[in-house]
Amino acid sequence: MNSREPDRERALRVAEDNCVLRGLVGSTVHGLSNPGTDDRDEMGVCIEPAEYLLGLRRFEHCVARTQPEGAPSGPGDVDLTIYGLQKFCRLASKGSPTVLLLFYVRGSDVLHTSPLGEQLQSLAPAFLSKRTGSAFLGYLDAQARSLRGERHATRTRELSATHGYDTKFAMHALRIGHQGLELLETGRITLPVAEPARSRLRDVRAGLPPLEQILHEIDDVSSRLRNATDAADLPASADEDRINSFLEHAYTSHWG
Fold first, then answer.
1. How far apart (Å, rounded) are the C-alpha atoms in residues 49 and 18?
2. Is it the case that residue 203 has pLDDT exceeding 80?
3. What was the pLDDT predicted at 155?
4. Mean pLDDT of all residues in the chain?
5. Which helix (H) or strand (E) holds 40?
6. For the chain, which domains are there?
7. Are strands 19-25 and 40-46 parallel, antiparallel or unpaired?
8. d(Cα 135, Cα 142) in Å, to the nearest integer?
9. Could you tell me which residues are beta bridge partners of residue 19?
10. Is pLDDT at 153 greater than 50 in this prediction?
């Protein structure tokens, strides 16, 4: 879909009418939010109508935000992203930390589900591979370089004026490392983040440790994640046969 308003509205209708799984993501689901200061991040998956896979139209994802495009979200704002099932599975098979999170959302943090949504979540092990570890490492490296100012100007948002770095960005960078390590070692991501990591991450968000210490911790968890990736009893890539079988079943049953 392009960015023209009628197309955006049509994309949102397609996404909501065909949604099979939708959950809360972001700081709240990780147990790392500051009440009254955070926006609300949601992610979903929809099954694209046949015309979007068999015809010329394409649907990959739809974004709906309280704030206009380009404006940062604030307290109480909602940021919703709904992926088409095909794109969601493609990103998950590549190890995307953002997308993989939805597999492990449970309980009241699941805002909408269906039998196909439940089947999708149960398919999580098929997406895990050594490629997953590499994706988490790549993300972590990019975040660390951003904090150092090596990729572009250092982030200057939450508490930056007081502590000299974007504390929320730093917290999520370190969180990615801890969750990637847990995923490779246990096959799952605990939500909210388990202790003692959660308390340390909250300290980072509060700006208690200096940036140099945070970067040291990121380097340490990166090294552990790299070793875990090498040692993991996982295939080199995702189980495409199982994923393709599910996709065929999901589309034909939904369309039928």
1. 8
2. yes
3. 47
4. 91
5. strand 40-46
6. 5-123+239-255 (3.30.460.10), 130-231 (no CATH)
7. antiparallel
8. 11
9. 46
10. no
Other beta carbons within 10 angstroms of residue 56's beta carbon come to 6
Helix (H, G, I), strand (E, B) or coil at 199: helix
> Could you report the per-residue pLDDT of 113-147, keeping only the tens digit for each?
999 999 999 999 999 999 999 999 999 999 999 99
- Residue indicated by tokens 């909250």: 202
User: Is the Cα torsion angle 167, 98, 180, 116 positive or negative in sign?
Assistant: positive
Looking at the chain, how many residues does it have?
A: 256
Question: Where do we find the tokens 């990736």?
Answer: 229
In which residue are the tokens 């015809």 written? 55
Beta carbons within 8 Å of 141's beta carbon, 6+ residues apart:
222
Buried b (16+ CB within 10 A) or exposed e, 131-148: bbbbbbbebbeebbebbe
Which of 49-63, 85-99, 146-160, 241-255 is predicted least confidently? 146-160
Q: Are strands 40-46 and 78-84 parallel, antiparallel or unpaired?
A: parallel
